[in-house]
Amino acid sequence: MENNQNDKLTYILMIIAGLICILNGVLVFDQTIIMILLSILFIIVGLIMSFISINGLRHKLK
């Protein structure tokens, strides 16, 4: 039973990390090409991480 709670906590922390990556990508202040590419990369990684963790959490709750 404790392992199931640890898995849920891991998925919740992954959702938070994904949201922080998305926020980091959105709030870029430098408008150089490299920073724009990095912000796009952070947004993509954040979206992928959030999607995977939400799907994993949904399967654990069933």
UniProtKB/TrEMBL annotation:
The chain crosses the membrane at residues 9-27, 33-57. This is Uncharacterized protein. Keywords: Membrane, Transmembrane, Transmembrane helix.
